[in-house]
Amino acid sequence: MSTYAGTTERRLYRDKDKAILGGVCAGLADYLGFNLKVTRLLAFITFLCAMPFAIVGYIAAVFLIPSSSRAHAKADYEELRKEKLREEIRRAKPDVEEVRRRYKSMDERLARIERYVTSSRYELDEKLRRL
Do residues 71 and 116 share a domain? Predict the structure, then answer.
């Protein structure tokens, strides 16, 4: 399996649940794995340093980045988790013949144990063990 196939698909969304203005900073912080307060502080510093460009960029981000709430993202995550679990179950499903072979082997071992326990040899072994 390649590295790309093993990674989960992340998407950039504006987070409406943590939004103050448009949710751009909250979505960026979530996407990049940054602290939300640090992301907002960096956005504020950007506004102070390059006011017109920052405002145009923020407004563009509000219109271009799709919005999403936590409930929607959580539902997507749950569906992905369930699909992975289904796939694991499909892969781990044993072959019917393999199960029959195992049960037959266990049944034979159990029959040998029963024969030993009910034999006179078992009684003799117990008496020798107690000495």
Answer: no
